[in-house]
Write a structure and sequence with these properties.
mainly beta, six-stranded mixed sheet, four-stranded antiparallel sheet
């Protein structure tokens, strides 16, 4: 009888832990390199109906840049992911501002706050993210974005789209 009770207790604990893992699983954060939110749907291959701009084409290594994502009217988007990747290494570099409550930041490639993404699933027509380099080096970085029209359920999305290049001057 004690063995049966122990087996049932263990099974209950394992199911509860498994349920918590499912709730915490985020298909966006698990795909830092591909920037594909999940493996269930293929990204769009046509030109995305979103505009990505920077507030300047170059910065000093002690400055920041603003990245703007805008939907072409009448569209909106619910999900996004932004990375600045070093053109030499292909790795996400720099840090996104953690004070913007409309944006969540995650660690990719072992670098803190290197990737910005949506903080909620509400429809958006534009978003602004502040990014700064993490070191005092000359570099060229390119911003990549993934943008999803809808998140829950995942609708049409454009993954790992190369957008603007930024020159960092020491």
């Amino acid at each position: 009888m004690q063995t049966l009770a122990m087996v049932l207790w263990t099974a209950t604990i394992l199911l509860e832990v498994k349920g918590q893992e499912d709730e915490l699983w985020d298909p966006w954060t698990d795909n830092c390199e591909s920037m594909v939110p999940c493996n269930l749907t293929e990204p769009q291959t046509d030109t995305m109906p979103y505009i990505v701009t920077l507030n300047r084409p170059y910065i000093n290594s002690d400055q920041a840049v603003y990245v703007y994502i805008r939907a072409l009217p009448p569209l909106s988007f619910q999900g996004f992911m932004i990375q600045a990747r070093d053109d030499k290494t292909g790795q996400a570099v720099g840090e996104f501002d953690t004070d913007n409550r409309k944006i969540s930041v995650i660690n990719c490639f072992g670098r803190p706050d290197s990737t910005a993404m949506h903080a909620d699933n509400s429809p958006k027509t534009e978003v602004t993210a502040r990014w700064a380099p993490e070191d005092d080096n000359d570099a060229t970085v390119t911003f990549y974005v993934t943008i999803a029209e809808t998140v829950n359920p995942l609708g049409r999305f454009w993954a790992c789209q190369r957008t603007k290049t930024l020159q960092i001057i020491k």
